[in-house]
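To illustrate the input format used throughout this study, we show a single complete record. The first block contains the structure-token representation of the backbone; no residue identities are included at this stage. The design step must infer an amino acid for every position from geometry alone.
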């Protein structure tokens, strides 16, 4: 089963969802603006994606650009806690295969194909 951190208002997220649903693979959908992952999960996601937590930031979001409380972006723990408090800044969509310890960001949506080929 895959887990997708999804924002239904995002076209990339909707397209990624469509690709997964068309594949027939079981999927748990987490609408992360309503069910925000905690800081520990955010750090896990970054680890699965093999990137620093700051790599999960949507730096073009107004909430990020206008933030006056940003932590040191090199401090994974602090950045994860900040993202937890500002979930709009979390990159999307993130699709996770916890069973196999893999994840991808669906930008472009076709990135998810690597998780569908098992």
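Output of the design step:
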């Amino acid at each position: 089963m895959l887990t997708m951190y999804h924002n239904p208002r995002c076209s990339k997220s909707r397209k990624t969802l469509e690709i997964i649903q068309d594949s027939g693979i079981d999927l748990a959908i987490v609408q992360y603006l309503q069910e925000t992952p905690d800081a520990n999960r955010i750090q896990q996601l970054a680890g699965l994606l093999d990137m620093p937590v700051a790599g999960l930031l949507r730096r073009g979001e107004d909430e990020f650009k206008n933030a006056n409380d940003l932590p040191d972006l090199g401090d994974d723990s602090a950045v994860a806690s900040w993202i937890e408090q500002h979930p709009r800044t979390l990159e999307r969509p993130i699709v996770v295969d916890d069973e196999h310890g893999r994840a991808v960001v669906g930008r472009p949506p076709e990135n998810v194909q690597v998780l569908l080929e098992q």
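Structural context for interpreting the output: The chain has one domain: 2-116. The first strand starts at residue 2 and ends at 6.
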